[in-house]
Design goal:
Length: 193
């Protein structure tokens, strides 16, 4: 298979971005759900594998730290960031349980879980969704291709219209940045600490 040129990759991304405008309503709805959870004392949980793990970490760290403006730190936990938890759970329960077990320990009704999986078929993300839904946690899928099995096992599927992993992840970054823009624009001064 020939390596695409930079121009070809840009053209592919432009096409995917144009098709992704259809995702605007669900992206906005999820942004509002995340804001509502945080305002009511909930937290954001994120998870993913490989490049999707980096996206999950990116979203969580921008809430605990900051995105663009100074605001209070907001509660977010990336479930793929604690190597000791991952290896302990993986060793004792298997890799498919690494996120679900943490959802059981850390998740509470009113929280939001965002699972990143470009295929929609990551068994550990599917297990995390099941654990989250059993606890009244809102579940959000960021995926691509056809959304895989996770498409029907979450509250809000956001399926990037592409089969190319790189393009899917590039749009995921745009989506999470959009949520961060909304969070930064919110008034956090009137909320209890």
């Amino acid at each position: 298979m020939a390596t695409p040129t930079f121009t070809e990759s840009l053209e592919e991304l432009r096409s995917v971005l144009t098709a992704s405008t259809a995702l605007a309503p669900v992206v906005s709805t999820v942004g509002e759900a995340i804001l509502a959870s945080l305002r009511q004392g909930g937290k954001l949980l994120t998870c993913g594998n490989g490049g999707s793990a980096a996206d999950a970490l990116h979203l969580a760290e921008e809430l605990v730290g900051r995105y663009k403006i100074e605001r209070r730190a907001l509660p977010a936990i990336c479930l793929n960031s604690d190597v000791t938890a991952l290896t302990c759970i993986g060793n004792d329960y298997g890799y498919d349980a690494i996120f679900a077990r943490q959802v059981e320990a850390l998740g509470r009704r009113g929280d939001v879980l965002v699972g990143f999986t470009t295929s929609g078929n990551s068994a550990n993300v599917l297990a995390a969704f099941a654990a989250a839904r059993a606890r009244g946690i809102t579940t959000v899928l960021l995926s691509g291709k056809d959304g895989g099995k996770a498409r029907t096992q979450c509250d809000f599927p956001i399926i990037v219209p592409s089969a190319t992993t790189a393009r899917i992840q590039e749009v995921h970054t745009l989506v999470l940045h959009q949520w961060l823009e909304a969070i930064d624009a919110a008034d956090w001064t009137q909320l209890p600490a």
